[in-house]
Amino acid sequence: MKKNKIILSFSLLDFNDITPEEITQLLNVNPTKICVKGQRRNPKNPESPLIKQNGWMIDSPLGQYASFEDQMNSLLDIIESKIDIFRALCKMYYCEFSCAIFMYLGNEESTPWVHLDSRYNELIKELNIEFDLDLYVFPNEEVSNSNL
């Protein structure tokens, strides 16, 4: 039976006067993913669309089965430890927390919750970080097959 997952990340986007490598060096944090404007989303597929903006992203180091609260706190720990650098970057570029929740019906797990506490609220006021939430609900294959 599939377990519910939460994927939480922080992104710096739409920069043109600095490279992802320079951001990595400034922060001394290795990104989970970088995007370079004009490159193919899938370099192995010549028909793949081009990336429209530069991006530097870090995922929560806790993994997709940790709670939203634990994942958010791990990212806040990283950002708060380098607050002066993030303050300058967030002032110049678009910054966002992205959260994707994948739910599987009938897996006997409760719906994952997203609670944005005062620690989060204080930080985003200071740094002007957007929040994007996507919810995906899938039938659980084992439940679907047993109903045939």
TrEMBL record:
It holds the Pfam family DUF4279. It comes from the Bacteria. This is DUF4279 domain-containing protein. It comes from Solitalea canadensis (strain ATCC 29591 / DSM 3403 / JCM 21819 / LMG 8368 / NBRC 15130 / NCIMB 12057 / USAM 9D).
